[in-house]
Structure formats: structure tokens, C-alpha cells
């Protein structure tokens, strides 16, 4: 397989960074080809703005989607965006590695979606969901949190993981990916704040890394999550069964 890790954490030695390194080593040992897109190391600009389009189709008003369509059609996307798209196109499996921040994805990753999932090129009004550009490819979110896993339940302090990741995972499905169930590493805390004693860190991290390797070892047989498709909606985008 061709595998792409998209890392969204500002510290390369963080546990998120370690999980990417562990995953890369594991897959390469199995004979797979691995690429890593470390967004912070690349100094990726997540902010969609007029300055990203020096050759504008409309100089009077900035309409992001129109400028994306124009740039894609004319082959003048920013080099960093074209680079990300080409890596996605090469990949059979894309793993997004990031911490849960404020019950969501980091702003860096949200902005990456805003800029890289280019309107008119990677999606259109009909090229979405189960007709999406990346159909046949798989994607997965691997996340970390300082809170223990027991907190991520209905009514818990952490909130339900499925709700936290719904927007990101549904966006991947929107782009045509088969979305695999997420992998979560809980109880990963920064220096000076932890749910475990300092002397338990190494043992805990070793266990989490082993869990990660075990997940990756079976990932080719993972069953994607189920989402509704075009045949399940009426012309207004509502469930057909609701109107039956």
C-alpha cells in the first residue's frame, strides 16, 4: 500500500509525533510505502484568504469557492496545496493524527480541509459522498486526549468521541473516502499535568504504542463505517424513508 500520515501537532516529539513515527516504521517494515505530511513542520498556512490567489477571477470580491475552482481549472493552485493533493492521490490509506482540542480537531487541520479539499476539482455538486473524488481510498482518524477513556461516554466530561469526530469523519466521507473507525489514545497528558503518576508515563505510553501497532496490523481488514449515500436521499437531501 501507499500510506499517508497527515500530522497536526506543533511539537514533533509529542506523543502524536511518536505515533506517526511508530506507524511509519511498522508499515515500512511490512513493505509498504509511507509519506508523512507534518503540517506544522511544513509551516502550512491553514487560513483561506484572497492572498492565496494572486491571479484572481474576481478582483472586486473574494469568493473562496469560485477562486478555488478557477485556480484548479487553470492549474495555478498554490504549490503547497498541489503538493498535498498529489500526496492524497498517491495514497491508498490516509491516517490523520491529531490531538482533540476544544472538543474538535486543531485549527491547523480544519484549515487544511478548507484549503486542500478544492471546490470544482476534488468535489462538485455531484462528485461527493459515495460518488466522491477519493472513492476506493480509505481514511482514518487517530486521536489523542489527556483525559482518560472513561470520560468519553454519553454524558461524560469528555463528550462522546463519535460526536467530537463527526464533522471530520463525515467530511472525509463527503470527499469519497471509505472512513475506518477511529483509533483513540487516551490519558496522554503534557508536562506538569497528568492523570497518572510521572513514573507510570513510560509504561502507559508503551502500552498505547502497542495498542497502536495492533490496530495497524489489522487495518487492512477493517470494515468502514456506514454512511447514507445518494440513493438514500430525496432531491432535497432528506432521508427517503422519512418521506415514505
Automatic annotation (TrEMBL):
GO terms for cellular component: cytosol. Keywords: Oxidoreductase. Coiled coil: none annotated. InterPro entries: Flavodoxin_fold (IPR003680), Flavoprotein-like_sf (IPR029039), NAD(P)H_dehydrogenase_qn (IPR051545). Residues 1-193 form the Flavodoxin-like fold domain. The keyword rRNA-binding does not apply. One of its GO terms (molecular function) is NAD(P)H dehydrogenase (quinone) activity. Belongs to the NAD(P)H dehydrogenase (quinone) family. This is NAD(P)H dehydrogenase (Quinone). The lineage of its organism: Bacteria, Pseudomonadati, Pseudomonadota, Alphaproteobacteria, Hyphomicrobiales.
